[in-house]
Amino acid sequence: MxxxxxxxxxxxxxxxxxxSIISAYFIEYVLGHQPCSLCLIERIPYGLSIxxxxxxxxxxxxxxxxxxxxxxxxxxxxxxxxxxxxxEQGLLEESAVCGLKDSTGVISKEEILKxxxxxxxxxxxxxxxxxxxxxxxINILLSLILITLLTKIYNSYEKNK
Length: 161
Hints:
Elements (H helix, E strand, L loop, with lengths): L2 H28 L6 H22 L4 H26 L20 H9 L11 E2 L2 E2 H21 L6
Antiparallel strand pairs: 1-2
């Protein structure tokens, strides 16, 4: 892979991350499907990858390190998605993360009543599917593809310098 190919691959990953984030917000705010807590956590790696790839355009000397951070970012995405799929399939029990709303401090009884009235989405409930697959399943596949691609880029990085 030449530097041009690496730049093209990073742009492709940037586009995939942007489309993933925009799609998640579209599904939530336009289509009205509320995400669970783990779904919200699964968005973090895509936002982080956008930041890292943008950072890479300003600091090219750190490109190999940024690629390594991207691998770790999407490995986290893969791990949390596999965990989430286990909950969706009933193989794992829901954790405390699935029920958290706001645990940042003392809240008033009015806020507690408001939270009780809100409809919370369980991590085991799939509210949106594409071609029969939950978004968690799609995220697992996408994370594996990105990990594989980034590992290939990282391993061939020195050969092209």
